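User: structure tokens for this one?
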Amino acid sequence: MTVENCGIDVTVEAPPERVYAAYQPAIEIAHALGISDRLIETAFLDAQVLPEYADAQEQVPYVEKLPSREALLATGPDFILSGYNNVFTEDGAGDESFGTRASLTRLGIQSWILSPLCPSADGLSDEAIDPATVSVETIYDDLRDLGALFDVEERAEQVIADQQQRIAAVDQVLAGADRPSVAIVLLDEGGGIRVAGGIDFGTQIIAQAGGVNAFADLVERRHVAIDLEELIRRDPDVILTSTCCDASYTRQDGAEEAQTIMQNPALAGLSAVQNGAVHPFLFADRAAGVRIAHAIELLASLLHPDLAPAIQDETGQDGGE
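Assistant:
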């Protein structure tokens, strides 16, 4: 079977049996598809896995840091499933690199990148995104394609249907509601800040949750460095943190970052600060994967607190972790 992924043909003679999953979105998709027993190792969680996958994750080997190419090959994978492209870069781009996907194919190892963040070419980093791929529909495409490759098509369709139904329920509740502007703010060491730009998948999460990314026009990179003056000029209605990266993290671990923003004297005049609308939020919850319904439900409740009870009633979710 051959399926195209991010411009690369992925060919398997039989469903892969030794799968290496790197990064949160890939790990959770593997569990959602019911192939946990095929995972030989998982690496680099940004936060706790969703509760429905906790038991499955406990049963598979986990390492905090991405392995080197040599350590990866020593595990004997026949398939690498990755949430981000940094592991397939020429230079690692800050993470360990497994080598380009082409180089792994030559060793008989197939690979997959979650399609909403397809790079513009093999070997480029997670920041080199093809904007045309950044959509919720590409997540469903991934699930169908992976379902075919792993021979779990029925399970894949069940996962897709669940996501679609929950997102549609939120959309129904939010019909006609105002759309507040939202900034996802990353606090860097040394006091600098970055924001999630238009090609970050967070833009899709915000839109589906009834908001607008205040920095959607910045599309040169996923994360764009700005100064405080630009944040003040755009004056978002809501600010989200981007708390990362530890397998134990929950939203509560972002409380300190939220307080740092709230207590910054230079930002005291921001609408989000004055209205107490600076919320802890996980990097994992703005990732492209099977967290999308969960993230949309949660963020919709934060952006539209008056509609939170209706969202809970309609979706059956409590909008918590």
